[in-house]
Amino acid sequence: MKRLSTIFGRVLLGAAALFGLAQPGMANAQARWTANSDDALLFDVRLGQYRLGDGVRGYQIPGGTCVDLADVIMALDIPVRLDKKLRRATGWAFDERHTVLIDRETGAVQIMNNVAKLGPNDIFDTPEGWCVATAKLGSWLGINLQADQGNALLIVKSTAKLPVELQMERRARAAGIRNVATFDLKSLPHSETPFRGVRMPSVDAVVSIGGLKDRSRGTGQINRSYELYAAGEVGPIAYNARLSSTRKGVPESLRIQAYRTDPEGRLLGGLKATSVAAGDISGFSTPLVAQSSAGRGAMLSNRPVERRDSFDRTDFRGELPQGWDAELYRNGQLLMFANDRADGRYEFLDVPLLYGQNRFEIVLYGPQGQIRRESRNVPVGLDSIPPRKTYYWAGVYDDGHDLIGLGGGGRFGRSGWRGTFGLERGLNARTSLAALVHSLVLEDGLRRNYAEIAVRRAVGPTLLEVSASQTSSGGSALRAQVLGELSNTYFSAESILARGHFRSDRILVDVTGLHTVSLDHSFKLGSTFLPVHLESRYTTRSSGLNSLDTAARVSTSIGRMSLTGEVNWRDERRKYGPEPPGILEASLLANARIGKVRLRGETRFRLRPDSRFDNATVVAEWSAGRGDDRYRGDWRAEIGYDRPLKRARVGLGYVRHFEKLALTGSVEAGSDGSLAGGLNLVFSLGPDPTDHGGMRMTSNRLATQGQAVARVYRDLNGDGIRQSDEPLEHDVQLTAGRVPVERLTGKDGQVLIDSLEPYQPVLIGIDASSLPDPLVQPATPGIVVTPRPGVAVAIELPLSSAGDVDGTLVRSGGGSFGGVEIELVNAEGRVTAKARTDFDGFFLFEAVPYGRYSIRIAPASADAARVSAALGGIAIVSGTTPSVHLGTIAAKATPRQAAIP
After folding, report:
1. Nearest alpha carbon to residue 736 among 162, 1, 124, 177
2. What does pTM read for this prediction?
């Protein structure tokens, strides 16, 4: 009905226009104008791309247009009260300081502190109410109102975004986020950057200089160090390299890896590999034999890039600069933490997974207050590989050795060459079979060879895996694992039995059995959720020394504070001799925000056999500056106490963020008389994709993250390819997945997008809410790119003019057909818009880019109504026909199948 009213308004507009042409003397009769049906209009209110309200009534008056004040108040949602009896309108528009008072009794209008007289042609009395001249009403409200009589539009423009526009943007963005999840990225346009030539590498750099003074010992030293991480490509090969120095600035370790990764599995011809790497690599992990580790070697696999080694556990590994700490959270719960190591890596190994969605966040804390966050989602469900699909993994590497050791470095952890080859086959949608062989050198220096086999099966809301391993020396191990969900409680149970002195990365010497049970449940206390994790492991050994380890972890949020408490109990049972007392330890981690200050505290203490306090740390972080993320300053204060060392410390740090770099400074003093200070410089260098041959410097990570440069243009001929005469569009907002891009396109129509997750497809598109003209819309949902580290992907996003499509859906036997979901399908067969029919069957698609479309009933609605989804009629939206009226369309009933006796 809204659309019919709009059409009726346009008919009245045409009649009014003709009437105006027939009355040449009307311009001189403004004062004698009275409302009549021939001058009546009905406008759709447009603010940018948004349609506000249910329409605004108005009239064509001599020399212009007037609109109903009450309708405008409702459409713009402004707190103005209109009292027709007192003939007064009072309130404020968009800002409490912008007060409005219109008093027709006194013939005055007051806008804030400015008072003026009402003109004879400012307000007209009509049957609907007060009809105010659009130009005058716009000036009172502080906006620009333009009446487009030809298209029956009342266009609202403002130099600043209005509250109603911000609200519409939030709703559109929320709806867009929900819609992104429904996109099948494989069905959308893709852009690939070919491997060719030599690409200038991107480099992430951390340069530090500091000093330490120990007054108690009368010693001091100056430290200077650096870490460089580079990523680039040479022909068909990608590479990354990490160079780190000692505290004296001497090169110590150099890691280099040459690799190729293709999520589509198009590497090495018939091998259809997804990953190939040589140099410094990471190994493969299995439940009974091998644990993931790093060393120099080579690997090859056709497994999906994001697929983990085990269905119930996963590993996280990454670069950890000197002086940094790392924390691992799962669904908001703190699971593990790691301090900096000599090899410059963090490792979270064998992280347990819950049935369903596991949202992990790795938070890296720098010594001067830097915070980096990395998020990953790991779903656990029907996780068997596709039926009749085979995956393989093969690798050999020298565990514990860097490819190139400098200054005597390059050795860490275990040492020795090891190799793994494995196959995994999907038997059906719920079952898979895996077989592997390993050759490992363990910590005792002896080489051992293994065969391992595993069967995985999904049974209802649970996953079950049974695996077995045999060594060449006769040892064997058997494992059973179940993971599932029962009434919102997540459970996991694992049992391992080892015989014949079986030993591996997973099963240590002397261990004959490992039996583990864990439960996760969230209790609701009022409006607060209390996640609780319980885990118990019983270990048996051939020596008779058995142990029981039990842990309980509870997390909660109180206001703006989140707390995670953990209690660990260890009890040992000995076959011979007295049993040692049980050990009970507890820890507490707290995160809170007080005003603009973020607090992070951690404390650890022992409860049994002797009660004692171990250590505590409190860190406060807050921002200071102009509020611009590119130029903000962050402060960090820390106080702590370590009981075993009997040392208290206090520190203060400041980091200044610029667009091109981040500069930090810190100072720390200890109760033992020590004093330390340092400066830290963080920046990245890389080729500037917007300037051929140029370089750019930024504080964003370029070498470890992906980049994209997008150019937005007006596609005048609709061919999807920019021509030299097609203009570029500036001040357009883009989106990359679920996160809006911070900057708008510049005068060259381009914008750089940093910090994209490597090798994870992401949809880059235009945020239609940023387009000022509702009749110009994105020509496509966007383009899917798969970023590569240190390499910028270039894409072009077209804009095209838009129109609308409407029609009326009826039943095949007659009668309206309301409440049905209708889909608009473009020439590529992709659904571009959805609408629901009104009670009378009327449907309307607005802001439809120019093109050829068909209409169909959504499959779910068609099945429910027992009608055919296909509908006749083709809509061609173009410059000559911006509004397409399909008229009445009849839905065809599907024939009912006779029941089979």
Report:
1. 177
2. 0.64
